[in-house]
Amino acid sequence: MAKSKSLQMLPDNLEEQQIPNLPAHTNIEHVAPNSCLQSALFGLIEKGTRKYLKQQQVASLNGVEIWYTGEQLDQSDLDVFLHAIHLTADEKNILPGNVVRFSMNGFLAATGKTVGGSGEKWLMSVIDRLAANMVYIEVPDSYTGKRQMYGGSLIRDFFYDYKTQTYSLRLNSSLGALFERGWTSVQWEQRVSLSNNLSKWLHGFYNSMQTIFPMQVSKLLELSGSSCGRLSDFRRALRRSLDNLVEVGAIQSWTIDHEDKIHIVRFQTKKVTEKPV
Asked: Are 208 and 32 in contact (CB under 8 A)?
């Protein structure tokens, strides 16, 4: 994606634009833009293979186009991003300047990570990645047919107090625009309980779909951003991860047919998405 294109799409005065708010939610819900769940933006990265990308287009669904600059993001990064959104969307947490404050230990516990030195180091590295990036997400407007673009880092800035072990953090002020294209209510306890990153990606992907169609295993490999070199290895990991979704009650069952397409059966009473794409 050329820089000139992105600059031309920025408004003259961002302060005067009508930027949508984050969706309202209850204390137990987390919400996610569908563009983050239906793409390889938060992909599957093998340990030691994380790369720095420069305006790299990532695979996505439904006419959404995403370009990314920064260290590659994975599902652990998405855990942090979604919980930061969750805390920010609750008005009682917000301080002047749209700052949300939270304790290191409380955040680690909420995301299912170990409290202590290794967890603290992990959280600091993730927040650093989410702040030191540039994401362009371009979506078609369902009413006008024209395209709209979100551009910016996912976290605007943060402050860490070593004495109290608390973060003060601000998300990008334009982030609410991502939710206009569609968003999903995430069953957080299920997500945190999942055993691997592919399970987490599948959990978000299938929850964000209003209607699930059979999809080729190779397409899931592409959309998940998996660095798995061989399709047979990915298919093996996919089987284990789909079993994991059944174990936690996220889906009822799954099969792979003779055309190598995945078929998913959801529970009929499942709440799928708040604003489907």
From this structure: yes
Q: What is the pTM of this model?
A: 0.86
CA gyration radius, the chain: 18
How distant, in Å, are the alpha carbons of 70, 124, 155, 165, 174 from that of 131? Answer: 9, 11, 5, 19, 14
Are 102 and 160 spatial neighbours (Cβ–Cβ below 8 Å)?
A: no
85 is written with which tokens? 């959104």
Q: Which of 115, 119, 116, 81 is nearest to 100 (CA)?
A: 81
Q: Which CATH architecture has domain 192-271?
A: 2-Layer Sandwich (3.30)
Could you tell me which CATH class the domain 26-186 is placed in?
A: mainly alpha
- Is the distance from CB of 254 to CB of 242 less than 8 angstroms? yes
Q: What pLDDT, in 10s, does the model give residues 96-151?
A: 888 999 999 999 999 999 888 899 999 999 999 999 999 999 887 666 667 778 88
